[in-house]
Specification:
Helices cover about 0% and strands about 55% of the residues. The chain has about 190 residues and is an all-beta fold. A hairpin with a 2-residue loop joins strand 2 and strand 3. The termini are far apart.
Length: about 190
Amino acid sequence: MGSTTDFKVGLTIEFEGSVWRVQEFLHVKPGKGPAFVRTTLKNVQTGKTLDKTWRAGETFPDAEVDTRDMTYSYIDGEEHVFMDMETYEEARVKSDIIDGADFIKEEMEIQIKYWKGSPIDVMVPKTGSYKVTEASASAAGAGKDKVMAPCTIETGAEIMVPDFIKEGDVIKIDTEERKYLGRDNS
């Protein structure tokens, strides 16, 4: 059993017969009355979000979630298919519930969360290096000002990058915030 004092972003809990991930939380201690916790929860099976207020110290059952390292294989219709390279077991996860699905590259190592034997969540790495496949043409004197322009990376995702980034560059991206972090010079 867990308690509202254990809340942190990314925590998975069991609530109303489903697994939910804490997206946001805020401990509130009003001048009058007892303290409480406001949360935004995301159902990891359906992608639905829910705003829930808990009494401070209220308990809830922990979701017994297992994590397995898997390799991304391919997209089959509306599902991403992953493979456990030790057992060669496949896991299929609906593409629309994967946060950051457009940052998954071929043969990328990814952690899959399982609940009651079924895959329920894909943990896309927070940062990654990606090759730019399309970038806007730089203007003369680019780089003097912090001009941002859209670019497309190898997975098809589009993000805003500084104007001096050109096609063929390898860049680092924060996949959660969809933000350019810098060039990857390795």
